[in-house]
Amino acid sequence: MAAIRQLAYGGGADTVDEYVRLGETTARKCLHKFTAGIIHLFGDQYLRRPTPEDLERLLRDGEERGFPGMVGSIDCMHWEWKNCPTSWRGMYSRGTGKPTMVLEAVASHDLWIWHAFFGATGTMNDLNILDQSPVFDDIVEGIALQVNYYVNGRDKIRRG
To answer: From what superkingdom does this record's organism come (predicted)?
Structure first.
């Protein structure tokens, strides 16, 4: 319960002591064991890079929907950081004065999340976040998977 409460409400390990009667160290250990269990149980299926078969399916689905060559949609959102340290507020605050962290995600049409990058400062715009993000690193470094796809009846090869 301590782990789920910390994840659900975004509170620290010391915030669950009154509700579940656990000390901070024990609550932190519970969270660590819970997340390690999730990774162990579901990591191979859900916490992985796309395989060549995944990419071919996503490209085929994108083409059928009128977006040839598209694997997924990328977007960034600002997430308010309630417990931002006072000394960092200026770096993470933008026009609203509230500190935010940025979540960048790539999702396919079936809501499968293929990439998530969290933690860029809230004062950045989407282009600066993309510059920090590892989302295109494999393509830039030339190590992205090679995938065959078709556009207008023509054979194409794409990396990543």
So the answer is: Eukaryota
- H helix or E strand, kind and range, residue 41: helix 24-46
Question: Of all helices (H) and strands (E), which one includes residue 78?
Answer: strand 73-80
The residue with tokens 């950045």 is 124
Instruction: Provide the token pair at 84.
Output: 């931002």
Q: What is the pLDDT of residues 43-67, one digit of tens each?
A: 988 888 888 899 889 988 988 998 8
User: What integer best gives the mean pLDDT of the chain?
Assistant: 84
From CA 55, how far away is CA 48, in angstroms rounded? Answer: 13
Q: What angle do CA 106, 109, 112 make, to 5 degrees?
A: 55
- pLDDT score, position 37: 96
State whether the Cα torsion 150-152-154-160 is positive or negative. negative
The angle that helices 2-9 and 24-46 make with each other, rounded to 10 degrees, is 80
Q: What is the pTM of this model?
A: 0.68
Long-range contacts of 112-121 (CB under 8 A, 24+ apart): 114/49, 114/50, 114/71, 114/72, 115/72, 115/74, 121/91, 121/92
